[in-house]
């Protein structure tokens, strides 16, 4: 009785989480002219339409470019910050961790407005550099937490052993810490990619003149149109995320990554 | 190849004094143990020597030159950790070669020296394994080889046997002694196990609350402890409050005990009439016929058959309880009255606490 009940609850939760995805994917495969479920006939023409649209192509490329840059910059910064976190005393580390994860705790809109004023003040308002900085700020806590978690798994005696064998700080990092926290860095990078690729609020306020990221382009598109091109775009995003997760799983195993 | 001097090492954590003026020396090729219960400062001393921790005061000298300000990577000391601390992502070979790779030695020389080190700890044929595929004893051998391969000026061992089971512990203990003797490396060895310290060390520093209670050879520590704490920590001992009556002609003391006057050796500073502690190791006591001349009558309280000996607990007329080991064939049973003989050469008079 209890088992049946918990299975039912679990089923409802999964349905709640996955049905929208199924609906979008189904809608993107329609042969008809309207976004609707179930699809009317099967076809890949909306994917072709998506890729043929210059607006969407440019938005996709900009999103990818910003996301990849975000991953590289964020992972480097978050690794440095996580090493600093490891070196601090327990009490200081707790305060430091809260400070580093602040962008995660504040409403995104608030951070966006703050960044808008700040970047304008620097003369970087409405530029690609400004947008890039904003993406790094938002993605940073995710990568930071993943790398801190990975570092916590490393026995401090590793660093002592390495030092006693003659390695300096950088040698110890390169030879011992880096290989041991690589799974955490990969996970953190994946998070940063997904966060940046999906970012809407921040991008809406800070987008460069004449440039649109994919979520913004979709939003603009849906304001006037309701054809399944949007569903095709969403489906491609889902596929990209699944590929990323599978890649991490293949490389490090999800158990170690989280 | 090295003489080590530790002078007045002091370390404070908040308000507690973890080290309170620890001074030690190790001569060339000597193995010195730091023995004591947890929290006595033995590991803190070792960590200060390794450079993992900065002492608040005091100095560490290698052949007369201070290394206290040097970071660990500049000291060239080999360290063996309690939990081995092998690099989990590196093979046995790469673990051992680590210190050589850091020094950028030619690959051929690295290979030769790693092979030598692994031969020394008798671990060959496992070079390509990862640490997690090794047993505890094998991991500790790798850790020892890794510390030795850099030809350190000093070897520091922090309870290296604590995580091994009893059988392996014996084996690795002898291996450590062999390797240390063979390579003539000066070594400091931290342990809380007195038998381990006795078997391995040239000298033992018994530590108590951040200080060195006694620093001497195992024989002296065991037979001539400086205070009751040292006697209790270095093996079974009956420790009985006693007041010496006067000095004997050969520099010992006359101590009244169980109705007789025992001439026993003791710590020189004790004055007749002062309260002191009489140490009787179980091997200083034997059971004989209660009728004989000059014996101390005792009542057997309990016995336990240990195989090689019969452990007995007896009580004297004044209620003093003593533990001793009799021959396993001794016809002794609880409730019997027996005679107790004291071998005064194995007795020792010492102060309760060294002032």
Automatic annotation (TrEMBL), chain A:
Residues 60-247 form the ABC transmembrane type-1 domain. The keyword Cell inner membrane applies. It is a multi-pass membrane protein. It comes from Falsiroseomonas stagni DSM 19981. It comes from the Bacteria. It is found in: Cell inner membrane; Cell membrane. This is Putative spermidine/putrescine transport system permease protein. Gene3D superfamilies: MetI-like. One of its GO terms (biological process) is transmembrane transport. It holds the Pfam family BPD_transp_1.
From TrEMBL, chain B:
This is Putative spermidine/putrescine transport system ATP-binding protein. Residues 4-234 form the ABC transporter domain. The keyword ATP-binding applies. The keyword Manganese does not apply. Pfam families: ABC_tran (PF00005), TOBE_2 (PF08402). GO terms for molecular function: ATP binding; ATP hydrolysis activity; transmembrane transporter activity. One of its GO terms (biological process) is quaternary ammonium group transport. The lineage of its organism: Bacteria, Pseudomonadati, Pseudomonadota, Alphaproteobacteria, Acetobacterales. GO terms for cellular component: ATP-binding cassette (ABC) transporter complex. SMART domains: AAA. InterPro entries: AAA+_ATPase, ABC_SmlMolc_Importer, ABC_transporter-like_ATP-bd, ABC_transporter-like_CS, Mo/tungstate-bd_C_term_dom, P-loop_NTPase, Transp-assoc_OB_typ2. It comes from the Bacteria. Signal peptide: none annotated. It comes from Falsiroseomonas stagni DSM 19981. Keywords: ATP-binding, Nucleotide-binding, Transport.
